[in-house]
Amino acid sequence: MARSELIHLVCDISLIHTLAKWRYPGSWNGHGMYGDPSLYLDLARLLEHGRFDGAFFADVAGTPMIDGQIDDTVEWGVAWPRHDPLPMAIAMAGVTKHLGFVTTMSMTYHHPFNVARLYSSIDHVTGGRIAYNAVVSGFPQEAQNFGYDTTPDHEWRYRRAEEFQDVVDKLFRSVDPDAMLWDRETGRVADPAKVRRIDHEGEFFKVMGPLPCAPCPQGRPVQIQAGQSPSGMKLAGRWADMQFASSSNLEGMAAHRAQLDAAAIAAGRTPRDVGILWSAPFHVVSGEAEAEADRRKVADSIPPRMAHVFLSQWWGVDGFPMNPRRTVHETVAELKETGAGPNWGYLDLALRMTDSKTTIGDYAMTRMAAPAFFTGTPEQIADRMEEVHYGTGANGGFMVSTKVGVPGGIARFVHEVVPVLQRRGLMRKEYAGPTMRDNLLN
Fold it and tell me: pTM, whole model, 2 decimals?
């Protein structure tokens, strides 16, 4: 079935308890702090009311270090703590009927048999409403938690990911959709002619199969991938249902869409087979006066040291002692000279956004309190979303996240922006079916 051109929405609720969002006035009021499910259950109901396709949980199973220590990350809660999101997703599924849930699983450190079995099982429990964000991990502390001294090299990780995907695909195909009999009269459970071993043996994995699960409601759970390197685009072009991507302007988004189209065609698929969910931080306001007042609230909630730690993690400069009083240009020059920073695109962006006098401390605060990509009245945000959506092929939608507090910021989007999109015919008013695949991919 061809994808529609409607806008699909997934809400990123990965870090609503960190990066000072929990301190924003009104955030988490009336709810227990992180670990207590009450806020997440309320968010699930709210997102379903807004006809969102899903809720998204990013995940990294490591604690980044600053200057060789974990203290600052822990003290200031910079993307820490992070529980495994799967139990929360299952709990949220229990209070909804249509909303889907995207959780993250590393192809670098997990085994494809476990992942296929786990997600098939959860698909049954949620009634076909689970998706997995298949990632190639790149943070050194995550590697060290799984027995590596440091992150394996890029080529190794992507070779493993390609084989990982192949094994998962074979496992889901190892049991035919009509294999189950459950014949009470004869006692036959399944037709053995419709269940097969896969007998896979490759560079990284040896898996006999079959997948010991009854066929799950979606056939196989929806798969989302990130990764904007050539290797990541190739992997997504072959395997992803949706890609999670970002760019600072429409021109960059259109170029990215063209690259993904080419990757899909090279893999024997069509461009419509792979949608994109554009990263879309939003901030709904009545006008510029409210926007400026909210920006001050955001800035006031961010401790300076937390912003510094965030910048260190964002740049990927683990263990590099960045002085908040030194200038950005001096620091970036030293990073490039030593080769300490893997996220070169972010370093170049910092040079473009600053002058020779801007300090690391000032830049860190500016980045954390920067205006959202979609800032404005409901009508203005809908205008911009429509422009981006049709300017990039109308194939997918947005991964939205709030720049202000929770649940208030998300509630405002649901109650004010969604109705505008629906009135314009850009977004559905009712769910298309019971499963996430029914809704997100059609």
Answer: 0.92
